Amino acid sequence: MYEALLRRMADDVRAGGPCLAALPAYVQTNEVERSRALLPGFLEVVRQTGLPLRLLEIGASAGLNLRWDHFPFLDVPATIRVAERRGCDLNPIDPTLDESRAAILCFVWPDQTERLQVLAEVIEIARRVPAAVDRCDAVDWLRIHLADPRPSVATIVYHSVVMPYLTEENRENLRRVAEVHLTMWPGGERRLIAQAGFHGRDVKVL
């Protein structure tokens, strides 16, 4: 089936024509299952501070993982309060636009129907829950958003993928096991709190 489709689209594929017009120029996986590995850190921050969360995600792509507290597949306590959700990406995708749907879904293998279904559900959540994603370099963006203290909230800076920015050796090490660390300030203590598979499944809380 796929071979026949590619044969019909061969000229467009070679030329990068209309059939590829909706696809982003860079890989944007938007793997929402990674929020399973991030959740223990979020819960620990709430436990220690008792404050509403200010979420700042670098490399956020479409910003789907900024809405993790609304995901139906996560067990999020009612005490969790999110005061602000904002991200940055060099090539952000706006999930509230109909034309963005193909760009978000296109990096999931077509036979992985469960992942496609979950992603489709989260896209609908993104249309109801606002979260701005700025087109900006992560370092410059953080300098701006961390410049002023915000005592009434617990600011969390996080990311849900770093693979494209690592050496091949480190990529291979991370494929074997992904580790999630939490650093609390003041004090700067860094703790390993969870391990997760590459797509966010099989989370082991430590």
Give a verbal description of the structure:
This protein has 7 helices and 7 strands. With 206 residues, it is α/β, with parallel strands linked by helices. The protein has one domain (23-205). The strands form 2 sheets. A 4-stranded parallel sheet has the order 3-2-1-4, with helices on both faces.
Poorly predicted regions: none
Strand content: 15-25%
Give the ordered list of helices and strands.
Answer: HHHEEHHEHEHEEE
Mean pLDDT: 80
How many individual domains? 1
Instruction: Tell me the number of strands.
Output: 7
**Class by alpha and beta content:** alpha/beta
Coarse morphology = globular
User: Rounded to an integer, what's the Rg over CA atoms?
Assistant: 18 Å
Placed side by side, the strands forming the largest sheet appear as 3-2-1-4
Task: Please give the largest β-sheet.
Answer: 4 strands, parallel
Helix amount: 25-40%
What is the first-to-last residue Cα distance? 45 Å
State the helix count: 7
Keywords:
single chain; 206 residues; alpha/beta; 19% strand; globular
Brief summary:
The chain is of the alpha/beta class. It has seven helices and seven strands.
What is the topology?
Blueprint: H1 2-8, H2 10-15, H3 35-49, E1 53-58, E2 82-89, H4 101-105, H5 113-128, E3 132-135, H6 138-145, E4 154-158, H7 168-176, E5 178-184, E6 189-196, E7 204-205
Parallel strand pairs: 1-2, 1-4, 2-3
Antiparallel strand pairs: 5-6, 6-7
